[in-house]
Structures are given as C-alpha cells and as structure tokens.
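Here's what a typical entry looks like (ABC transporter ATP-binding protein):
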Amino acid sequence: MSARCEGSAAGAEACEAASGAAGARACGTAEGAAGGAPVSSARGVASGASAVELRGASFRYEDGDAGVEGVDLVVHPGECVVLTGPSGSGKTTVTRLVNGLAPAYWHGELAGEVRIGGIDAAALPLWERGRAVASVFQDPASQFFSFELAGEVAFACENYGMPTREIVERTDACIAAFDLERVRDRPLDALSSGEKQRVAVASAVAPGSRVLVCDEPTANLDADGAALLASQVAQLKAAGCAVLVSEHRLAWLAGIADRYAYLEGGQVRWQRSASEMEALSAGERERFGLRSASAVALPELARPEDARTSADGTAPSLEARRLACRRGGHTIWEDVSFRAWPGQVVALTGRNGAGKSTLARVLAGLARQSAGEVLVGGRALRSAARRRRVFYGANDTATQFFTSSVSDELLLGRVRDEGLIARARDTLGRLGLMPFKDAHPATLSGGQRQRLALACGLLSDRPVLVFDEPTSGLDGASMRIVATALSEAARAGRTVIVITHDGELAERCCTCRLRMEELA
C-alpha cells in the first residue's frame, strides 16, 4: 500500500494506483504507475547516507534576529524526528535550513553543514531541493498557489512534469486520504483553518518526496484530522521517507516519533529517544514546558445556562437568537441559539469546517448573519455596534496586526495615559512578551503572535472576548499562561468564548462548553 495517501479504504486503493507497486514499497524512489520520473534528486543519494544532516549549523537572520547556533541533527530514511521546545526557540528556523528557505528566501548568514541525502545542500539547485524536501508551513495558507483545492494538491506534481494521468491519480488519492472530498469544489479561502491545514499536508505528500518537513502540522486540526495525519506519517516512515516535525502537541506522535530534539535559545539542548521521552515525569515535562505525552480529550462540560453560578450574575452578557449564516447558496449553520454570562469561559468546539470561526466573526460583528440577532448586554446590536463591544482574536494572527511594534499594537487607537501604559507593561510581563516589546509583530514566532493577540484582547475594554484557537502554536508553559489569563479575565467579570480543539487548555480554564453539532 502506498505511503503517500493512506487513511481510508478508497484512498488507500487510489493511492496504490497512483504510485504503482514499486512506489508502494519505497517513498519517492520508484516511478509511478503512469511512468513518472523518480522523486529522488537527479544527483542521486549516496548509498547509506542520512536523509537530512546538520553539523554545527548556525543561522542568523539578515535583520539581526536570532536564529539557531551549532545545531547537530540527523534524520535517517524511515525515521521521524520531532523538534520541540519553547515558542521562539528556533524550531522553525531548523525546518527552513532543511527545506532551503533559509537562506534562499529568509536571508541571513549560514555557517556549518546542511546535507540532504548525503549531498551538500548548497550544491543543490532550489528546484531540486524542493523536489527532495516537501514542506508544510506553520501558516498553511501562506504556501498556497491555487484558488481551488484540487489544483493546489496537484500543483507540485504539475511543476515536476509528471504525466497527466499520474497527476490526476495522485491528486484524487490524496484528497480521499485526507477526507477532503466533501469540500473539493470549494475555493480555498472558503475553507476552515483545519481544512486548509489538511490541504497543505495533502499537497506536500502528493509528489512523494524523500523528506517531509512539517511545522506545527496539527495546530488547527481536530482529533480526526490529527489521527489522519498520524496514519499518513506512519505509512511514510514505513515506505522509507524521512519525516522532520516541529511540534508542541506531542500526543499524536506517540508510537510514531523515533527521537525528540529539544531546542531552547536557538540551540539543541538535548535529544532523547521515544522511550526516554515517555519516561519523563510530569514534573520534568512541566519544567521543560512540554505538552502532555498522551491525548487529553475535551472535557464533558455543561452548556453555559446549566453551568451558571451565583457569581455569574442574572443577565446574560451575550446571546444568540436563531442565527443563520449562508454563503453562496451554501448553509454553514442555522437556528443557532445560546446564552453566556459574565464570569464564564466557554469552550466552543466542533469538527473542522463546522463553522466555529464564522460564528465567532458574526458574534464580533465582523461578518453578517443571514438571519437572527445577537444581543450584547441585553441589547440587540448591529454589526458595527458589536465590534465595539466584542473583541475577536483571529486564528490567523498574521492578518490581525497593523503597527510596527508589539507595544504600539497594544496601544493602537487608545489614549496613552500612564495608567494604560502601566497595564500594557503588566500584560506583556504576564504573557512573557516583555522581551519583545519593541519587536515588529511579523518577526514573532507563531506562539508569540498568539499571545500578542491575547494581550490585545485583555487590554481592551470590551466585556466579551472571543479567541479563535489561542493556543494553536503554544508550548506547554505558554498554554498554561494563557489558561490562567483567560480565567482571570472571567473572574474580572468578562465573558470569554474560546474556540478550541485543545483538551489541555479546556481542562484548565473552561467552565462550560458549546458544541457546534448541537447548536446548528
């Protein structure tokens, strides 16, 4: 069975047809059924060579931002190595050294050795490096070249000149394997963040590269999506592909990862085998800021109206009445009604594509409902008025910031008196962002941008805060900081709505739960 596209019976059969019998045995080493060129580099791979090798690799970005220093790392064919460690520790930089984006795109000074398949990476043309190493970025939408799903999955195969029949077979197989058939005909910008993440992985897997590099691939995935990815990675390993994963959420990698490399301050502090990682105590994991080694299910919490306490007040602060949302003739959800009270942290959960982010934008006045009304503080408000009462922290934080520094972002549109500045400093300190107060938001890591979005919400005067996957790029220590901050906001009398697939976060701070499958 092909390693490229396994995960459902139909997908497995289609993938075997796409790859051919030989391709089913060795990832990227054989020609496809339609006679496509081998995925391996035209220069070949030295016999017995490692798939990826970094020796004393150091990189500093052109703008002076710290990268990594003295990294020694080896990934063998058929092996999965996981990069973990605090947000901003250099994990993404290591992935860029492997796929060649640093220094080709992310300019800076590179020292040491980077070898792909035993060959000096500097000697490989970028197109050849790109064929050998497939990548999934932290922000999946940033790697899309097409407007439609099938074209995106086929894009790399087309660029490598594969025969038309093989391209179609590979594309269909990967769409089936990643459970994307039901959204196949939708434009990419109409997909949820989790669906986009699955498209990005499918398009990376489709051409059958020898090395797969993934940066936070489960950040926006629901449990089913993470299980699909785990199945794919296991099959890729079995077929001889090397997999390098930068990840905070480690539970899905149990039984798949062979080694873990822990980065801190741009350096690899230690490497441990899978068995050594499993043996870490809870105290050691917390000291290193690591997430749980086993999956934490979303807690079975009551609905907001059933979870009220005497401290929550008598009047709901947020109410949805028979809301409906339709786009382009497609009904996303309808007849959605619920209430939430001050002092509550409400987990809004549901599968990828259920419409959670759309509901959040409607509540915050950033999207229009097709029917129904939203009440804030007991008053039905139009979209413009809701924007002044409800804060929305987007899942894609790259689109949310407008200034050139972290400090300016917090103070944007506010009267800068001493009290506000003191509160801003306190908020940055509590969220671990004070060292970056003068940094441009675009230079922050994904996890740091998530915390900045949270800081903006906490510093706002709005009584209702809505955050979309606020821990999607966070390590264990940062997740715990965010959970504490959300709980404190609720205790101060605000209503907090959190869209999340993160069982660890929900277990720590959420007081009640809304399930999209029960609302719509």
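The chain is about 35% helix and 20% strand.

More examples are in the samples folder.
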